[in-house]
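[Q] Does anyone have a clean structure-token version of this?
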Amino acid sequence: MDIHTLIKEFEQKMLLQRYSENSIRNYSSTIKSFLELAKRKYKHPDEIDDAGIEKYILWKVEKHCVSVSYQRLIVASIDKFYQTLYARKLNIKHLYPTRKVKSLPNYITKSEIKKLLKAVDNKKHRCIIKMLYGAGLRLNELLNLKLTDINSQNMLIYIRKGKGNKDRVVMLSENLLTELREYFVLYKPKDYLFEGQDGGMYSEKSVQNVVKNAALKAGAKKKVTPHTLRHSFATHLLESGTDIRFIQQLLGHSSIKTTEVYTHITDITKSKIKSPLDIL
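[A] Here you go.
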């Protein structure tokens, strides 16, 4: 089984179907893990039946304790792989998780954001954190930002091919713009806004470490990730009275229901309801 050739062919097919870079990366990475395990027993992917695929999913759930969303990605990737390369329709819809986990977004307070920024001296790292929080970006959206996507004249940031392959614009903070100009003079990026040491796109792991280390230095009591900063952006806008439909557009959510999860946090925060323990 030539995994490299199979993955390359799969990626080319998805590219022709106009899948986003992020979707192609996620699908191919997931399929690679599947094929690497399958290679031990099978000579060709088409030898694997639906029952074998179900065993693999069960193994991922039991052995690796994968999340509901990641299980959904695995099933979708395998289904897409067989349809695309072999025109084979799998009977694996029952492997999609049916129960939805309704968890509240993990966010940090405004005072915790201030502590986070105060703990970072590196200009590039400060700009990364400010961009994630100040514009509510997803990690891959930050990584794909180019110098030409920053419109300082109209104070806008252009997000190209975000989730669902959609473009959108978000506001550019004056505070961030000042720091970005200082960062540009120091680092002189050529194409992407944030680049690696040898040029080219900055890595996901590097951004994750920037946020993680800043949180540790700031003495954060909870886990802080790039997505935590995005959640904080939405929560703080809602707390300040911003219309939820504007927040939906800024976050790039297709459905208002996705954005409404933040109201569960802010409704309790703003309410005057006291715990019964406090009125005994």
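[Q] Thanks! Anything notable?
[A] The domain at 3-95 is CATH 1.10.150.130 (DNA polymerase; domain 1).
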